[in-house]
Amino acid sequence: MCGIFGCVSKADGAAKIIHESLKRLEYRGYDSVGEATIFDGRIHVKKDQGKIDEVHKVHNLDDLPGSVGIGHTRWATHGAPSRVNAHPHLDCEDKIAVVHNGIIENFSELKAELEGLGHIFKSKTDTEVIPHLIEENIKRGSSFIEAVREALKRLEGSYAVAIITSLEPDKIVCARKESPLILGVGEKALYCASDIPAFLPLTNKAVILEEGDVAILQHDRYEIRRLEDWKQIAREIQVIAWTPEMAEKQGYPHFMLKEIHEQPLSLRNALRPQELYMDLMATFLDRAKNVFLVACGTSYHACLAASYMFSKLAYLPTYPIIASEFAEHVGMAVNIDSTILAVSQSGETADTLAAVEHARNRAATVLGLTNVVGSTLTRVSRVYVLQQSGPEIGVAATKTFTAQLLVLAQLALRVAKLRGKVSHQEVKAIEKKLKEIPDVVERTIKVNEEKIRQIVRKYKDSRFFVFLGRGISTATSLEGRLKLMEIAYVPAFAFPAGESKHGPISLIEPSVTVIFICPRDRTRKTIIGNIMEMKARGASIISVIEEGDEEIKQLSDDYLEVLGEVPEVLSPIAFVVPLQLFAYYMAVEKGYNPDMPRNLAKSVTVK
Ligand code: M6R
Q1: Ligand 1 midpoint to CA 259 (Å)
Q2: Of the residues 364, 388, 422, which one is the last residue of a structural domain?
């Protein structure tokens, strides 16, 4: 995920401060780095692809002159990692420099408009529209601050930005919308950064900017205004008592918990997939004779859920296949008329890439969904889309799973529209629900966390766990089981609830806990039957229910609620969240480090 930093100080030496602060943002993951300072009426820039130390070795980041500057670590989204795509980005006359974290959704329209007005773009990034928009506004008579305000108002999507100009060399203007931005208030300087750790050794006084805030920093003062009405507002200064290690995790004890809490944000980003590529993918899926959804582990669970989405929304049958089984299972059935949608967070999983290779050798069309620009999957796919989750550091996939589901749901909806399988009203209704999902997840985390922290104590000695769901919730139960097994080392099973009577029920006895996934969909009645069967055999029952489902509450020993009405096809996104928290707190309760489960790697690059 990109990191931004800005420094306005009285004395020279901003570049070194920025360099050191960017080092403290390295944990966010990045592929390129850059800095810009103002000195002698000019903007000075150094930037390149590579790690900070490598770029510093070649370019000496510290010898940029001046007391005001901005810096950036880039995690590529629009445009491959390269020197030209690295931030800061400048206007045509090199008078305005911008660093940005987020996604400008309407950048193509803005770019076309600005190119029509004679602006020359150098990079493939969405960010570069910002300095050119500001430049254009200044040309038309606005002051720098007005020009920034007018430009921000035209941006759709998410941003945290820091902007400097040689026209007013004593200041930084920064602003946020859906991407974090924090001010650091030091004695000799003011800072802005994506994260508190960036400035923590310099000052422990922080001002957390809120949605729609614009801050203007000068070395000895700052003001914060609302973008909307330009009213000046006061925000409280908070004294941060974190250790540097805590600061990297934003105060959370583990990256996994931080990433679970990041889901409202990563889901909002997943609601902005690249339109053109999504449409292309939908066309390929619609025209294919057979569609295989291929992945491993958590990503396979996303594929399994997606197969229900494609079927229910678009009446498109698809075959979810575990990548390591692909060649053996369906290899001979793949041909020029097949389309393979490979899903891989890292884009580097060896089994998934092997399946893709097999499919390519049989002339099939390969589509990719991944989180990593420039990964092998992006290179071997005919078309790919990015899920925009930012780097995930915990080995257990959490925010990347829910983001994959959200992108896949949007894709299924597009195929449905192409095929004319859903009415205009249904499309509108689902689109509305898609937009509400980040808030549902936010509320669900809030309402369950403390409860889960308590109930894991009660269940920690269960002999084993069984996760049961029906329909699309089968995927949710498999994912809940995987989370619990991989980080808390608890034996667990999961299968469609209907299968229990065909064998596994013989294992059930009072020392077993069964976790039921119970959205209010058409499987609810039969799930109630399964709950009764398990209760009758003495198992403890935990149910994950939609808020206010009194009937299932009464049948359960404990329940976890999803706060909001979620349509069936989107239910795994919300219903998996309590299961992620359950696994996390169970691992902590048992004294394990959930970020580094034994024997596992984040990306499995061997077959
Ligand atoms: O990077 P990928 O999505 O291809 O990784 C696939 C699996 O290795 C991965 O989802 C794994 O199962 C999770 N880290 C488990 O939480």
Answers
A1: 15
A2: 422
Q: Give the ligand 1 atom nearest the CA of 400.
A: 3
Buried b (16+ CB within 10 A) or exposed e, 532-558: eebbeeebbbbbbbbeebeebeebbeb
Q: Which residues form the pocket of ligand 1, taking CB atoms under 6 Å from any ligand atom?
A: 296-299, 344-346, 349, 352, 395-397, 482, 486, 603-604
Domain of residue 561 covers: 448-596
SS3 content of the chain, % helix, strand, coil (to 5): 45, 25, 35
Whole-number Å distance, alpha carbon 189 to ligand 1 midpoint, is 43
Kindly tell me if the per-residue pLDDT of 79 is higher than 90.
Answer: no
Residue 231: φ, ψ to 5°:
-75, 140
Query: CA 111, CA 128: separation in Å to the nearest integer?
Result: 8
Provide the CATH number for the domain around residue 103: 3.60.20.10
CATH number at residue 354: 3.40.50.10490
* Res. 263 pLDDT band, cuts 50 70 90: very high
d(CA 506, CA 87) in angstroms, rounded, equals: 60
- Residue 274 pLDDT grade (very low, low, confident, very high; cuts 50, 70, 90): confident
Give the model confidence (pLDDT) of 332-371 as tens digits: 999 999 999 999 999 989 899 999 999 999 999 999 999 9
Instruction: Specify whether 49 is located in the same domain as 180.
Output: yes
Q: Can you tell me which atom of ligand 1 is nearest the CA of 346?
A: 1
**Lowest-confidence pick of 132-146, 361-375, 467-481:** 361-375
**Counted domains in the chain:** 3
Is residue 602 among the annotated active site residues?
yes
CA of 345 from ligand 1 middle (Å) equals: 7
Is 2 tagged catalytic? yes
How far is residue 156's CA from residue 30's CA, in Å, rounded to a whole number?
Answer: 24
**Residue 105 φ/ψ, nearest 5 degrees:** -70, -35
Q: What is the pLDDT of residues 559-574, one digit of tens each?
A: 999 999 999 999 999 9
Shared-domain flag, residues 406 and 526: no
Closest atom of ligand 1 relative to the 483 alpha carbon: 16
Q: Would you give the distance in Å from CA 151 to the centre of its chain? A: 26
- Euclidean distance between CA atoms 180 and 427, whole angstroms: 32
Q: Which of 255, 256, 294, 298 to mutate to test the pocket of ligand 1 (most atoms within 8 A of CB)?
A: 298
The pLDDT tens digits for 385-404 are: 999 888 788 999 999 999 99
For the chain, give the longest Cα–Cα distance: 81
User: 233 alpha carbon to ligand 1 midpoint, in Å?
Assistant: 44
| pLDDT(329) > 80 | yes
Query: Relative to the CA of 404, which ligand 1 atom is closest?
Result: 3
